[in-house]
Amino acid sequence: MIDGIIKEVKPKMQTAISKLQNDLSRIRTGRANPGILDGIMVLYYGTSTAIREVASISVPESNQILVKPWDRGAINPIETAIRNSD
């Protein structure tokens, strides 16, 4: 009986833990965290694409996030997507 309850509840708990981890990674602290860009989608050549797929993202200093597009044509769509987020 208890095993059945555990099997039923375990996937729901895993989902809740994953959601919490995702939410906690987006909290803004005093340090730069590239995870805040994870949900940003860029309109790239007419297709909605994750920002990580069109640019490299790094943290050169504790208060900077550097986004380097792989294609110059993606600069304006990336800027627009970042400005429109949040």
Topology (SSEs and partners):
Layout: H1 2-25, E1 41-44, E2 47-50, E3 55-58, E4 66-69, H2 75-84
Antiparallel strand pairs: 1-2, 3-4
Q: For the record, give the distance between the C-alpha atoms at the N and C termini, rounded to a whole number.
A: 45 Å
The CATH architecture assignment turns out to be: 2-Layer Sandwich
CATH class: Alpha Beta
The geometry reads as elongated
Structural class, judged by helices and strands? alpha+beta
Protein described:
The mean pLDDT is about 90. The chain is elongated, with a radius of gyration of 18 Å. The termini are far apart. The strands form 2 sheets. The chain has a two-stranded antiparallel ribbon with strand order 1-2. The chain is α+β, with helices and mostly antiparallel strands. The chain has helices at about 1-25, 75-85; strands at about 40-45, 45-50, 55-60, 65-70. It is built from 2 helices and 4 strands, in the order αββββα. It has a single domain (about 1-85), classed as Gyrase A, domain 2 (2-Layer Sandwich), CATH 3.30.1360.40.
Summed up:
With 86 residues, this protein is an alpha+beta fold.
Summary tags:
single chain; alpha+beta; Gyrase A, domain 2; two-stranded antiparallel sheet; 2 helices
